[in-house]
Every structure is written in structure tokens, then in C-alpha cells.
Design goal:
Layout (H helix, E strand, L loop, with lengths): L2 H40 L4 H4 L104 H12 L6 H5 L2 H20 L2 E3 L4 E3 L1 H25 L6 H23 L3 H19 L5 H34 L10 H6 L6 H18 L8 H8 L2 H30 L1 H24 L4 H22 L2 H32 L10 H4 L1 H14 L6 H16 L2 H26 L17 H19 L5 H11 L3
Antiparallel strand pairs: 1-2
Helix pairs in contact: 1-3, 1-5, 1-7, 5-6, 6-7, 6-13, 6-16, 6-21, 6-22, 7-8, 7-13, 8-9, 8-13, 9-11, 9-12, 11-13, 11-14, 12-13, 12-15, 13-14, 13-15, 13-16, 14-15, 14-20, 15-16, 15-19, 15-20, 16-18, 16-19, 16-21, 16-22, 18-20, 18-21, 19-20, 19-21
């Protein structure tokens, strides 16, 4: 592989998402200029035009059992407006089986307090247009006769007025553009997977970026999960209470998030690794508070405060490790280079290295959802949009823990394996105990999945504590399988929230009967998270348990198995409560709600990939073994 090709493969996973974010930003600037031009056109209206009536708000009617809304989100909906399933939106001024201008239109419409949730969907229609406003089919104002336009207004002026008031029209390119950067990450990971196991690690830009087997495995995991989450974005954003600038800002932040995670995976310098992990905190804080509700803003602040405290501890640990490296005679330029530190770790001061390792475990453990700095995770995951929750749970936690594994290699060489084994095993058992207890008392669907993430991250920490080649390979397999299964589960939970109008487990019944495709996907994702065959988590959990009883610590593995049974029972019971039985308050004759091909495709693809990992790793077997050896310090 030539140097230019290597540099391209190492930089594309970072540059392409950043370029995609820049494209969304440039699109926003163009639309802002268009709105400014429309506002300038408003200043040249005639007195007759300025005295015209204000525009009338439109109402989007959604069929089904959820309440009709004016494009707003119900108070108990955690992931967007409720809806009764896909279907054509009713035209303003019509009722089912009626025609425009027939019964249910004009002055006999039921509006205001009488049009409550108990009224039929067609009865909650928008108010009639004011007198003097000409409307065409579907209530659209005709150019030259709409609000703010007098008889003398030209079509060009009317277009400027409409652009100034309603904003830009969403572009079909937006959904397709969102898949460019995940595809680039996955493609670069696949290309590196074909060469790195045979030729060894590759570097670029003065050893600032480096790709070994562990890097390639994490790139493939990030790329696969990002493809699923970004493919689910359009279906979720279609029901969000956001205007076009807010949706564009959402896409911009998502791709900046992908760039930060790719940089953390590819960083060869521990300082750059810390900066990239901190960048993920900054970007995802805005994504958690995307809806700007009281609960989402509170969750975003809680996430920022706790993770910033954790990252500060990790920064202090990195500084101490740099001090130990300088004291050991390592040149300044390479004092934070991971490869150099791993090769000369036996020269580091044991006392300083022990303190640095403890701080790093606490700091990066906070980003990975490990106790004691775990409290941000259920709030952030439950309030973020479903695809963002999928990215945070599916890969952000694993990327942070992969950074922790880099420090573990240095600590094992400098201190022996006993210190990190005891530390990680204790953190794993405490986190698993908290997750199991909170799952038993959980009443919210998305928070249930968040605590399930804590459970799986504790299993990953336990496998890292065992430290044998079998355990470390199982840890990496668990990261990939958990990322795929949790992405499907969170994306499906977003559809469930909109279908049922709530994320409260007690209010969700008969999901399999009400929407068979959605219920099957959600149920299969939970089955995968429970560690049942044929999914990849079954093989990885079996490998961790087997390696733990062979190599120790046996006490931690035995305690983990007991706690896993409690978590298994809680997750299975609550999921069965949601899936089985008839839907509450529904007629038996109601037809099932279809999910739709665009929404179902990411769910099916994620489940298929997770099942494939459970059957065989195929051509990735060598890569997985070499990545496990790197974590083990070999």
C-alpha cells in the first residue's frame, strides 16, 4: 500500500463527515440569504399589501388513534409526535369519505376546546381562511391572492413573500447526503481490514494517525452502526417538531459526531485521543437537547457536567502519564505516542502510572457509562432523538472504552495485570448491580434500554479484566454485536413512541397485534440484547464467561452471572408486557399498522448483521484475533 493510499484511508473517515457537515452549513447559509432577500421584498410592498391579513396557520391531520396536532409534540411523547401509523394525510377541509367543501368544512368544523382527543381526527380541522383570501385545492393560497399580497403583486414578489414566511422547502438530497459519511467510514474500514492483518499497522502524518487491528475493528463497528442510524434519520425527522434550519443543524451535528468518533479511533497520540473524546461530549450535548424541551435541556446539562468532570479526570491522568514518560527519558515528541509508551512502559514510575490509570478508568469510564459517573446515561439516552440514542449507546460508549483499553495496555506492562484486573472487575460488578436493580424498577422504554447499555458495558469491562486472548476477542465481538442490536432497539423504540404516543411501558400493549413488523423488530432486538442465539451477543457472553472461569477473577464472573439473571428477567418481562395482548382501547377489527419500507430496512439490516456475527465472523476472524492480541499487550 502506497503512502498516499494509506493517508487517504486514514483521513477519509474524519474528513468526509466534516465535509458533509460543511455542506449542511453552506446549505443553511444559502437559505438564510434567500430568506433575507424575501424579507427585503416585504419592505417594498404597497400600503394595500401591508394592510392585508396575516397568514393562517395550517394543520396537519394524522389518521389513527393518536390525537391530531398542529405539528407539535404531545407532552407524554418522548420521541416525537404521536401518530396512528403511516397513511395519507387528510386534506384540510375534508373528512373521510367527503370532498372539499362538503360536510365538515367551513363554519361547521369543530375547533378549539371541543376538538379534543376524543373527537374524530377529521373534526379537528384548521380554521377557515379569512375572507378575501383566495385558496386553491388543498387550501393553498394562489399567487397574487394570498395573505400579504394584493391584486398588484407579481408571482415573483409572491415567491419572495412565501420564502420569507415559510422558509426553504426541504430538499430530497438531504436524506441521501446523510449516508455519505457512514459509507465512507465503513468503506475505509473494509479496505484497511484487507491489508492491516497481513502487512501490520500503518501510520500517516508523522504518526499522528495510526491504524492497527483494533482501530480497524472499531472503524467497522462505527461505520456499520452509523449506516443504520443515518438511514433511520429521515423517517424519524419526518415526525419531529423541527423546522428546516433545525433539521439541517441536526444533520450537521450528527456528522461532526461521526468525525469525532473516527478521530478518537484513529488517533495514535493519547493527547489527540483525549481531545477527540472531549469533542464527542460537546457535539452530542446539542443533540441531546435537540428538542429544546425542559427535560431534554436538563438531560443535556447533566450530560455535560458529569462527562466534563470525567474527561477532566482523564486529562489529569494523561498529564501524569506524560510526566512519567518524560521522567523515564522518552523524548517530548513521543511522550504521548501510544506505540512508544506501550514499548517502553516498563520504564515508567509505578506509583505515578498507578494513579494515572485510576484517573483514566474513572474518566473514560464516565463516557462508557460505568459507575460511579454513570448518572447521565439514562437521561441523555431517553431524551435524545432515537437515532442519536442509537449512536451514543451503540458506538460512543464502545469508542470511549476502546480508548481506555489503550491505557490498559500501558498499565499492564508497567504494573502487571493484577492492578487493572482488580480495578476493572470491581467497576464492572458495581455497574452491573446498579443496572440490574434499576431495570427491575424501570417504567420507561428508552430508559430501560439505557440501563441495558450499562449492563453490557459492565460485561465488556469484565471481559477486559479477565484479559485472556479469548476474553479480549469476545469483548470486541460484544462491542460490535451490542452496537448493532442496540441501534435496532432504539430506532424501533422511536417508532413505538410515535405509534403509541408515549414511552411508558405500562401504556404500551399489544405491539405485535397493532404493528406486527415493528413489534417483531423490537422483540428480536431485545432477544439479541438478552444474549440468546443466534445473535452475536450469545457467542460473546459465552466467551467472556468461559474465559473468566478459566483465567479468573472467578468471583467477579460468578457475581456477574447472578446479576445478569436479574437483568434478564426484568428486561424480558417488560418487553413481553409491551408486545403481547390486545392494544388497549382498540377494536378487534382495526387493521394492523404497516411500518413502511424506509423505516423497516435499517431494522432488518441490523438484525441480520447481528445474527451473522453470532453464526461466524468469516473473513474478520483474523482481524478479531489480532485486535485481541493488541489489547493483551502482545
Amino acid at each position: 500500500m502506497t503512502h498516499a493510499t494509506t493517508a487517504l484511508l486514514l483521513t477519509a473517515p474524519i474528513v468526509v463527515p466534516l465535509a458533509t457537515s460543511a455542506a449542511y452549513a453552506a446549505s443553511g447559509l444559502r437559505d438564510a440569504k434567500a430568506r433575507a432577500a424575501g424579507a427585503a421584498a416585504l419592505g417594498h410592498r404597497t400600503p394595500r399589501q401591508r394592510g392585508a391579513a396575516a397568514p393562517v396557520a395550517t394543520l396537519v391531520l394524522r389518521p389513527g388513534r393518536g390525537p391530531a396536532t398542529y405539528g407539535t409534540t404531545p407532552a407524554d411523547t418522548a420521541d416525537g409526535p404521536s401518530y396512528g401509523g403511516p397513511g395519507a394525510r387528510a386534506r384540510p377541509g375534508t373528512r373521510p369519505g367527503g370532498s372539499p367543501g362538503g360536510p365538515g368544512t367551513g363554519s361547521d368544523r369543530i375547533t378549539g376546546p371541543d376538538a379534543g382527543p376524543g373527537a374524530p381526527a377529521w373534526s379537528r380541522a384548521r380554521p377557515a381562511a379569512p375572507a378575501g383570501t383566495g385558496t386553491g385545492p388543498e387550501g393553498r393560497a394562489r399567487p397574487g391572492r394570498g395573505p400579504g399580497a394584493g391584486p398588484g403583486a407579481s408571482p415573483r414578489t409572491w415567491g419572495a413573500l412565501r420564502a420569507a414566511r415559510s422558509g426553504p422547502v426541504p430538499r430530497p438530497l438531504t436524506g441521501r447526503l446523510g449516508l455519505v459519511s457512514p459509507a465512507a467510514i465503513l468503506t475505509c474500514g473494509a479496505a484497511l481490514a484487507c491489508t492491516v492483518p497481513d502487512s501490520g499497522p500503518v501510520t500517516a502524518y508523522g504518526r499522528l494517525l495510526r491504524a492497527d487491528a483494533l482501530t480497524v475493528w472499531m472503524l467497522l463497528t462505527v461505520g456499520a452502526v452509523a449506516c443504520l442510524a443515518c438511514a433511520a434519520n429521515p423517517a424519524h425527522l419526518a415526525h419531529e417538531r423541527t423546522d428546516e434550519p433545525a433539521a439541517r443543524r441536526y444533520h450537521l451535528l450528527v456528522h461532526a459526531f461521526l468525525a469525532a468518533m473516527s478521530a478518537a479511533v484513529l488517533a495514535a497520540n493519547l493527547g489527540v485521543l483525549w481531545v477527540a473524546i472531549e469533542a464527542t461530549t460537546i457535539v452530542t450535548a446539542f443533540l441531546v437537547g435537540h428538542r429544546r424541551t425542559r427535560a431534554s435541556v436538563e438531560a443535556a446539562w447533566k450530560y455535560v457536567v458529569i462527562c466534563s468532570a470525567g474527561i477532566a479526570l482523564a486529562f489529569l491522568g494523561t498529564v501524569l502519564l506524560y510526566y512519567a514518560a518524560r521522567q523515564a527519558g522518552i523524548p517530548e515528541a513521543y511522550a504521548l505516542d501510544w506505540q512508544t509508551l506501550a514499548a517502553r512502559a516498563d520504564r515508567l514510575d509505578p506509583s505515578v502510572t498507578r494513579l494515572a490509570t485510576g484517573l483514566v478508568v474513572l474518566g473514560f469510564g464516565a463516557k462508557a457509562g460505568l459507575a460511579p459517573l454513570h448518572a447521565w446515561l439514562p437521561d441523555a439516552h431517553s431524551q435524545a432523538p432515537a437515532p442519536v440514542s442509537a449512536l451514543m449507546s451503540g458506538v460512543l460508549l464502545s469508542v470511549a472504552f476502546a480508548g481506555l483499553l489503550r491505557y490498559k495496555v500501558i498499565a499492564d506492562t508497567a504494573l502487571g495485570t493484577g492492578f487493572t484486573r482488580t480495578l476493572l472487575a470491581g467497576v464492572a460488578v458495581v455497574t452491573l448491580a446498579l443496572a440490574a436493580a434499576l431495570l427491575l424498577a424501570q417504567r420507561d422504554c428508552k430508559r430501560m434500554l439505557a440501563y441495558s447499555s450499562m449492563e453490557h458495558m459492565s460485561l465488556i469491562a469484565l471481559g477486559a479484566a479477565v484479559g485472556s486472548p479469548l476474553a479480549l476477542s469476545a469483548v470486541l465481538l460484544h462491542m460490535a454485536g451490542h452496537g448493532l442490536a442496540k441501534t435496532v432497539a432504539f430506532c424501533a423504540s422511536g417508532h413505538v413512541a410515535r405509534l403509541c404516543g408515549t414511552t411508558r411501558i405500562g401504556r404500551i400493549r399489544g405491539l405485535l397485534a397493532h404493528s406486527p413488523c415493528l413489534g417483531t423488530a423490537f422483540g428480536a432486538a431485545v432477544v439479541a440484547l438478552l444474549g440468546l442465539p443466534p445473535f452475536g451477543l450469545f457467542a460473546s457472553e459465552l466467551g467472556i464467561a468461559r474465559a473468566g472461569f478459566l483465567s479468573g477473577p472467578r468471583w467477579a464472573v460468578a457475581a456477574a452471572l447472578v446479576l445478569m439473571l436479574a437483568a434478564f428477567a426484568a428486561l424480558a418481562a417488560r418487553t413481553a408486557r409491551m408486545l403481547l395482548g390486545p392494544p388497549p382501547g382498540e377494536d378487534d377489527e382495526e387493521e394492523p399498522v404497516p411500518l413502511g419500507a424506509d423505516a423497516a430496512a435499517p431494522l432488518v439490516a441490523g438484525l441480520a448483521a447481528c445474527a451473522a456475527l453470532g453464526v461466524t465472523t468469516g473473513p474478520l476472524t483474523t482481524l478479531l484475533s489480532e485486535a485481541g492480541e493488541i489489547i493483551g499487550g502482545h
